[in-house]
TrEMBL record:
Coiled coil: none annotated. One of its GO terms (molecular function) is oxidoreductase activity, acting on a sulfur group of donors, NAD(P) as acceptor. Gene3D superfamilies: FAD/NAD(P)-binding domain, Glutaredoxin. It holds the Pfam family Thioredoxin. It comes from the Eukaryota. This is Thioredoxin domain-containing protein. The keyword Flavoprotein applies.
Length: 507
């Protein structure tokens, strides 16, 4: 059932029923329904473009309004369950970015970073990406104080016990502010308008905690720090008129002063919660989009401007933007794709039930292996650390290997609530398996091993650092392609092998 096609020339050998581009609640739900309809969908989950596989929920702390979870569930946990369900029913999940889609021919052609696939129908669930402020010093302090993901970076040692700021007035911003209270001494909520747009329940939670200070009518002009290449130390703000809710609510309709006031706010971190931009650039000129970049669909349906192409989730939703509505639209897209294929006699069902069952079993085995890798990275942390073993966990193992091993050491820094970390672990685990016995891999939880993370200068997760002969030889932040990790590893593992051969010959 593999859709792994080696090169463009081979694409004519197989045409998929449906390809799903994107993940999240919309993409995974579409995959579940398409799989149950025996469409054998190929799902390009994405990797680095438009966020991590699983979508925006991978950066969400608590989901309290998704049916079936009376006690709530974290965004990453919910996406793990949806992903596993899609895989169990036979979806082929490909953790790669789609780089090009050609809708000028039929079957449609989808090109990713490592393969080319043809399909009779497409379901587009590429979602949206968190917006940035674009302040002058944003690039300078990105990952050194400025972040768009509180649950990814909030646990970093540089933020512990410090005052932090969140910009935005909607549910996302307020949720991030409340989450950051786990680590911060105080959180300043910077709201551009004279009121917060969040739900009443979320606003009530903010009001109930005195550690959250709300600044209305306030915008961020820039960030500042000390020495070049150092950490962010504060924000330069501009406020107009009253900034406190009490003052604004007590004005009784009197005209408020528009006097502008510039002031500095010393904070160690700035987190964005200012909305999202739809990930539709790939389809400009091929499908109809609205002025904001959202994909246009026929009212009440997932049908785009091209027959056989369906869209769902936050890519089309300009109003609700909820996990449950995204999931519902994914269901509609899958059912619509199935009907389109049947009505146009395009359904491919050339595999018998036994072959399908065998493929499902293979997917289940892969899912089980990935789950194990995601849970622990395949790492071990025993009292007796074996310096000859490849995988380890914890600072004790890292310190021992750092001082006693001459192999390359890859150290992955993770955090308990980090959604992108969960996606990276199985990816990195598979890469490390290729170098078993030739290098070391150590997983460090920055909450449990705060001291080692601080010494390593870790300011966010996921982060992978590489050490050789007690020197740092590389660092990769975020989730990267497997080939990027291989390229860096090969520079040092192969170099070590060459050196060993030279010594052997000289001896």
């Amino acid at each position: 059932m593999a859709a792994d096609v080696n090169g463009d020339a081979a694409t004519a050998e197989r045409v998929e029923n449906v390809v799903v581009i994107g993940s999240g609640p919309a993409g995974y739900t579409a995959a579940i329904y398409a799989s149950r309809a025996n469409l054998r969908p190929v799902v390009f989950e994405g990797l680095t473009k438009g966020g991590v596989p699983g979508g925006q929920l991978m950066t969400t702390t608590e989901v309290e309004n998704f049916p079936g979870f009376p006690d709530g569930i974290t965004g990453p946990d919910l996406m793990d369950r949806m992903r596993g369900q899609a895989e169990r029913w036979g979806s082929e999940l490909v953790t790669e970015d789609v780089e090009e889609v050609d809708l000028s021919q039929r079957p449609f052609v989808v090109r990713s970073t490592e393969r080319t696939v043809q399909a009779h129908s497409l379901i587009i669930a590429t979602g949206a990406t968190a917006r940035r402020l674009g302040i002058p010093s944003e690039h300078e302090f990105w990952t050194r104080g400025i972040s768009a993901c509180a649950i990814c970076d909030g646990a970093a040692p540089i933020f512990k016990g410090k005052e932090l700021a969140v910009v935005g007035g909607g549910d996302t911003a307020l949720e991030e502010a409340l989450y950051l209270l786990k680590y911060a001494s105080r959180v300043h909520l910077l709201v551009r308008s004279d009121h917060m747009r969040a739900s009443k329940a979320m606003i009530a939670r903010v009001h109930a905690d005195p550690r959250v200070v709300v600044h209305l009518n306030t915008t961020v002009e820039d960030a500042y720090g000390g020495k070049a290449g150092g950490l962010m130390e504060g924000l330069r703000l501009v406020s107009r008129g009253e900034t406190s809710e009490a003052a604004i609510n007590g004005s009784n309709g009197d005209a408020a002063s528009d006097e502008e006031r510039k002031w500095d706010l010393p904070v160690a971190g700035l987190f964005y919660g200012i909305g999202h931009t739809p990930n539709s650039d790939m389809f400009v000129g091929q499908l109809d989009l609205d002025e904001a970049g959202y994909m246009a669909v026929k009212p009440g349906t997932p049908q785009t401007s091209m027959e056989g192409v369906f869209a769902c989730g936050d890519l089309v939703d300009t109003q609700w933007r909820q996990a449950v509505t995204a999931a519902g639209s994914g269901c509609s897209a899958a059912i619509s794709a199935e009907r389109y294929l049947a009505e146009n006699a395009l359904l491919s069902g050339d595999e018998d039930d036994s072959a399908l069952a065998k493929a499902h079993g293979a997917h289940a085995e892969d899912a089980s292996a990935d789950a194990g890798a995601s849970a622990s990275g395949g790492a071990t942390d025993s009292s007796d650390i074996d310096v000859n073993a490849t995988k380890h966990a914890g600072q004790r193992a890292l310190r021992k290997l750092y001082h006693e091993s001459d192999r390359l050491i890859a150290v992955m820094y993770t955090a308990p609530t980090c959604g992108p970390c969960r996606m990276l672990k199985p990816i990195l685990n598979k890469v490390i398996n290729e170098y078993d016995g030739a290098m070391h891999y150590v997983e460090i939880d920055i909450v449990e091993d705060e001291e080692i993370a601080q010494a390593a200068g870790v300011v966010g997760t996921p982060c992978v650092q590489f050490f050789k002969a007690k020197e740092k030889v590389g660092e990769m932040k975020g989730v990267k392609q497997k080939r990027e990790y291989r390229e860096l590893i090969n520079q040092h593992v192969k170099a070590a092998a060459t050196e060993a051969e030279v010594v052997k010959v000289e001896a």
